[in-house]
Amino acid sequence: MIQLNYRDARPIYLQVKDGLRHLVVTGAIREGEQFPSVRALAASLAINPNTIQRAYEALEQEGYLRAEAGRGVFASRGADRADGRREALLKQLDEAVTELLFLGMTPKELAQRVSEAGTKGESAI
After folding, report:
1. Is pTM, for the whole model, over 0.90?
2. Per the CB 3.0–4.6 Å rule, which of 24, 45, 73, 89 could disulfide with 35?
3. What tens digit of pLDDT does each residue of 46-59 get?
4. Distance of alpha carbon 93 from the chain centroid
5. Gap between the Cα atoms of 35 and 28, Å rounded
């Protein structure tokens, strides 16, 4: 499910958050599907439950999951994603596109890459 790298400079909660986000984005965890409980995931990864709770809270703020009192944590719909996360990703994209254009990639090549990525994304969902 999630691989932790203790040599990675990123905090463990960020590794957990990024791993879970990847599972949602790729369709491994589908909309409405329940995430493991905080205790169960903490036990399977052999880390503190507070670390999992922190990752879940961050993902909820980003719109990737929703917590329902007494029921658990569930994957959210793509349309429910927080606008802040979308804006952050668009800023990263703009910076990457600018650099790729500087390095000689053509707008047509970039458009082809975006089209291919969209096709991959549709097949994962």
Report:
1. no
2. 73
3. 999 999 999 999 99
4. 16
5. 11
